[in-house]
Design goal:
single chain, alpha/beta, Hect, E3 ligase catalytic domain, four-stranded mixed sheet, 10 strands, 45% helix
């Protein structure tokens, strides 16, 4: 809407800057952070941090603020009386479009946005009510939306008058704490669609700076008010902030913006405001938008390791790093950070082993640089457990697997095979470590007590090794498992500290045992007399090896009846028992196994959902995407054999497609970056067409003879991918 005449719209802001400088002299305070002056701008590090130290896992919790922060309130200035309604405004717009006379509309916009008081006078639902609570912002959202939707369809002088008014509001001299009317104005101004245009970024930056510098109590209100914004408007504000950060990092026209050295506070301010919207989004269940909508893919192209090291060195001090706000970093970028951090740890451990060997005047051996695992297929679990237990000190070295009696050399393919077979055996119901729930299609930890939980530690170590070595696993744990795995994300120094314990809800139980969760939900909504009709106590029963055992959910629970008054407590304690207490020893072993390999500050950057993606990849197969990214050697994509191949593969069932992926790559899961990250290659095999296809899983390569017709290709391909266990050397 602002593109037409954008070049001379503000004469590159020269007339605005002149006005600002004049006001600056009148105010007499050259260091005021609210002044919209380009020279001598404070560095962004002067702004107060929006979140607490991530290392301590004390991320900002809006609801933890006490009620007292709402009072006392600064004196509120009396608002001008404005009576224009949505219908009045729409009538004015229609008349202006028909007649070409925009005077009434121009007067409305120039008056409404001239100051924070005028903004409240126009958009506050009731000017006589204070609206001082987090529950209701008092903003007439419908009127705001109508006014903003119409703004970009007005003449340029109308749009300019709005921006001039915003500058007047931002230049106001603040003598005390902000009022709730000021916060309302900020909330309304953030939704202005004009800030999608780069020509307004200087004004936008100063708006963001003022909002970022508000007190934590003020942020508390803005977060709760923001969660009431409609999904469409919420997403627009988030996208606008992400675009602002991207274009400041990589401007299409650098001359449009002030030099980076003079506006280092732009990106920190925008990121802190974005953190408010991320906090608002997390308060709603389900969230307003997906957590992935906060990813900024532009950050994939900056020096992420420098960001990570700055954060490691300085934490959440005055030195800004995107790692302080991990919600903005995409899962692909986080994977890069984790991989490089893992590689550096591997190199460091290998170097130390080499130095130790040389210092003892022993001959170095290349095998000492790797975690070498030798296993027999017939004793896979026991051999793997013994190997990992004996080589605890080597877990952070590069993994290499050897199957006893087979000639395969591990360039990655044998490692994938080892993971796949081991996971398949461990999770088999007959093994008894995990229970498979058919209703939810996921595994959960068996609550059966045993003398040794080392095999649970093995599964945790396997997951850690998979992440550490960039291998995806076919594990079906519920999201709750990954939440527990990050509780806490760094192993505590005090071994008496409980691990793997997190806040769980009925929603978490629904993802594992939906039938039981539904029953508990029915109990909560039951309208009759719970005590007389259910005759339950705070005692639960579990079957263990054919024996029924009872457990009290609280002291003397067997003597405490469940009533209408205490049923919420009963449900919460029951859920906590099932997902935390009854499996504590099993999960603690699993937790320590995972962190014995993956102990890294990089885990602090991850959400539970992101850990799941790193471990399991994506189960969604898009063979068309694989076709688009496939490379060819000896073939052209237009060759008849290749066309036959893709006709056959795209017509396969999902099961056969997974078998093909497993045959060619060693895994049937899609990595974080999608099919393109597989680097899948089809090579021409000069062998007889009587031969089956051959795969090099280390290199994700399929060797395909030039079969004469589609029927023959399909037959040979199905035979090959259906009999794909074991390795040999050609």
């Amino acid at each position: 809407g602002l593109e037409e005449g954008a070049k001379n719209q503000f004469s590159t802001f020269s007339n605005f800057i002149t006005t600002i400088n004049q006001k600056k002299e009148g105010i007499g305070n050259r260091n005021s952070p609210t002044q919209l002056v380009i020279p001598n701008i404070k560095n962004g590090r002067d702004l107060p941090p929006l979140c607490l130290d991530v290392r301590q896992k004390q991320r900002m919790s809006i609801d933890n603020l006490p009620q007292e922060l709402k009072a006392p309130f600064p004196p509120v200035s009396s608002l001008p009386i404005r009576t224009k309604t949505v219908k009045d405004f729409q009538d004015d717009m229609e008349k202006s479009k028909a007649s070409g006379d925009w005077k009434a509309v121009h007067n409305f916009y120039s008056t409404t946005f001239d100051s924070f008081l005028e903004i409240n006078a126009a958009f506050k639902k009731d000017t006589n009510s204070p609206f001082n609570t987090i529950e209701d912002s008092g903003i007439d959202a419908k009127f705001v939306n109508v006014v903003y939707d119409a703004l970009l369809n007005t003449p340029q002088d109308v749009q300019k008058s709005v921006l001039k008014g915003i500058i007047n509001g931002l230049l106001q001299e603040w003598t005390g704490p902000r009022t709730k009317d000021d916060l309302r104005a900020y909330c309304i101004l953030l939704q202005n669609p004009q800030f999608s245009n780069t020509s307004t970024y200087v004004i936008y930056a100063h708006l963001l700076r003022q909002i970022a510098a508000l007190t934590e109590a003020d942020h508390h209100f803005l977060v709760h008010w923001s969660k009431k914004i409609s999904q469409k408007r919420f997403k627009q504000v988030v996208d606008r902030l992400l675009q602002f950060i991207s274009l400041r990092l990589f401007p299409a026209k650098p001359e449009e913006f002030p030099p980076m050295v003079k506006c280092t506070w732009w990106i920190p301010s925008a990121t802190k405001v974005l953190a408010l919207f991320n906090a608002a989004n997390s308060l709603i269940s389900p969230p307003i938008i997906s957590y992935m909508d906060f990813y900024n893919s532009t950050l994939d192209h900056i020096d992420l390791m420098e960001e990570y090291h700055n954060w490691q060195c300085y934490g959440n001090s005055h030195r800004f790093s995107f790692c302080q706000y991990p919600f903005i970093i995409s899962i692909a970028a986080k994977k890069v950070i984790i991989q490089r951090d893992s590689e550096q740890q591997m190199i460091s451990i290998a170097r130390q082993s080499l130095v130790d060997k040389v210092s003892r005047r022993q001959k170095p051996d290349m095998n000492m640089l790797f975690l070498n695992v030798k296993v027999r297929r017939t004793h896979l679990v026991s051999d793997s457990l013994d190997e990992l237990a004996r080589k605890k000190a080597d877990l952070k070295k590069k993994l290499k697997v050897t199957f006893v009696g087979e000639a395969g050399l591990d360039m990655g393919g044998l490692t994938k095979e080892w993971f796949l077979l081991l996971i398949r055996q461990i999770f088999h119901p007959d093994y008894g470590m995990f229970t498979y729930h058919k209703d939810s299609h996921c595994h959960w930890f068996s609550s059966f007590k045993c003398d040794n939980y080392s095999e649970f530690r093995l599964v945790g170590a396997l997951m850690g090794l998979a992440v550490y070595n960039s291998i995806t696993l076919d594990i079906r744990f519920p999201p709750c498992c990954y939440k527990k795995l990050l509780s806490p994300p760094i192993v505590p120094c005090d071994h008496n500290t409980l691990v793997g314990i997190c806040g769980v809800t009925l929603d978490d139980l629904f993802q594992i045992m939906p039938e039981l969760a539904h029953g508990l939900s029915e109990l909560l909504s039951y309208e009759g007399n719970v005590e007389e009709d259910f005759y339950s106590t705070f005692q639960v029963f579990q079957e263990e090896f054919g024996v029924i055992k009872s457990y009290n959910l609280k002291p003397n629970g067997d003597k405490i009846p469940v009533t209408n008054r205490n049923r919420k407590e009963y449900v919460q304690l029951y859920v906590d028992f099932l997902l935390n207490k009854s499996i504590y020893k099993q999960f603690a072993a699993f937790y320590y196994g995972f962190h014995s390999v993956c102990a890294s500050y990089a885990l602090l950057l991850l959400r539970p959902e992101e850990v799941e993606i790193l471990v399991c990849g994506s189960p969604e197969l898009d063979m068309s995407a694989l076709q688009r990214s496939t490379q060819y050697e000896g073939y052209q994509k237009t060759d008849l054999t290749i066309r036959y191949f893709w006709d056959v593969v795209l017509g396969f069932s999902l099961e056969l497609q997974k078998k093909l992926l497993h045959f060619a790559t060693g895994s049937d899961r899609v990595p974080v970056g999608g099919m393109a990250d597989l680097n899948f290659k089809i090579s021409k095999s000069e062998t007889s067409t009587n031969w089956l296809p051959v795969a090099h899983t280390c290199f994700n390569q399929l060797c395909l003879p030039p079969y004469k017709n589609k029927k023959e290709l399909k037959q040979k391909l199905i035979i090959g991918i259906s009999n794909a266990e074991g390795f040999g050397l050609e």
